[in-house]
Specification:
With about 300 residues, this protein is of the alpha/beta class. It has 13 helices and nine strands. Helix 7 (about 180-185) packs parallel to helix 9.
Length: about 300
């Protein structure tokens, strides 16, 4: 029987987390789904764990591939799915038992191409509910909201599989930062896309605040820059100037915060490319003072203020 929903799970060295997600999928109250476990060249026991689940349940399928990054893993999954609808999940998260049933039911009732739902953020034992109701069901309005209060993830949104081919949407190879947002930018530019929403949270997103602090390198910054360049190639420049300015500013200030950009380089980049977003678009007084301090060469003050 052809599955109604395909769940794509990119996996890389997740041996200590993956069982929680897979067990939560086994507990789904609705059984018409398949799970594509994309083992992206893991060097730990992740691949063996995935194989064990596939042996126990025919709905779990494993694809072992060389490491190519999360975007390539997602795209590998997309090219292998057979479900009517697609949703993604990350290896260190988990889902509520009713998720697939409720999202699919809403998709059928509304004849929707995309169904949004709310989610939980899990952080050191604290669970925070995040409302994700779109401001309207207009694709353009939803796209703008993706740069503001809507999370750009693929794991709290069910998508009709045919949208990928119909609108030529894909996950760009080598862009392993906000690759899911780049997918939405491609899809939501099409006015015929039909959107719906379920007023309930099903997905538990586990936040790891320390990982970026310890692992942010010059290569990380370069990947962020590649994301911005790809975003520019997807978004029409006219009408989305502010979104593009703020995306570039975000990449810039993150590089400065984590010490990858030196004071002189940051000063130059601020004046050359980011002054309008920093001095005009920014709504936070603390951040504005931080940008002004950087512009004036008061680097110790700037570094204290320009932080999350």
């Amino acid at each position: 029987m052809t599955p109604k929903i395909s769940i794509i799970v990119p996996i890389y060295n997740a041996e200590y987390q993956i069982r929680c997600l897979l067990d939560s999928l086994l507990l789904q109250t609705w059984s018409h789904f398949e799970v594509l476990l994309i083992n992206d060249g893991s060097t730990d026991e992740s691949g063996a764990i995935c194989d064990a689940y596939a042996e126990k349940d025919h709905r779990f399928k494993v694809i072992h591939k060389e490491n190519g990054g999360v975007s390539a893993a997602r795209q590998t999954g997309i090219e292998a799915v057979s479900g009517e609808y697609v949703i993604h999940a990350d290896a260190d998260d988990w889902v509520e038992p009713e998720m697939l049933h409720d999202l699919y039911e809403k998709a059928i009732l509304a004849d929707a191409d995309i169904v949004f739902c709310d989610f939980y953020v899990e952080n050191n034992g604290n669970s925070v509910y995040r409302k994700q109701e779109p401001p309207s069901f207009s694709p353009e309005v939803v796209l703008r909201a993706m740069f503001q209060r809507l999370h750009g993830s693929c794991w709290n949104k069910l998508v009709r599989r045919s949208c990928y081919s119909q609108y030529g949407c894909h996950f760009p190879k080598g862009i392993d930062y906000c690759e899911d947002l780049l997918f939405w930018v491609q899809l939501l530019q099409h006015p015929k896309v039909k959107i719906s929403y379920v007023n309930k949270a099903y997905y538990h997103y586990v936040m790891n605040e320390t990982s970026i602090t310890h692992n942010y390198t010059r290569k990380t910054y370069q990947v962020r820059c590649a994301f911005y360049n790809q975003l520019c190639s997807y978004l029409p420049l006219k009408g989305f100037e502010k979104e593009l300015r703020n995306a570039r500013l975000s990449v810039f200030v993150e590089g400065y915060m984590y010490g990858v950009l030196g004071n002189g380089e940051a000063w130059k980049l601020l004046w050359m490319y980011n002054k309008k977003a920093a001095f005009i678009d920014s709504k936070s007084i603390r951040w504005q003072v931080g940008y002004i301090s950087l512009a004036l060469g008061c680097f110790p003050i700037a570094r204290r203020l320009l932080r999350f």
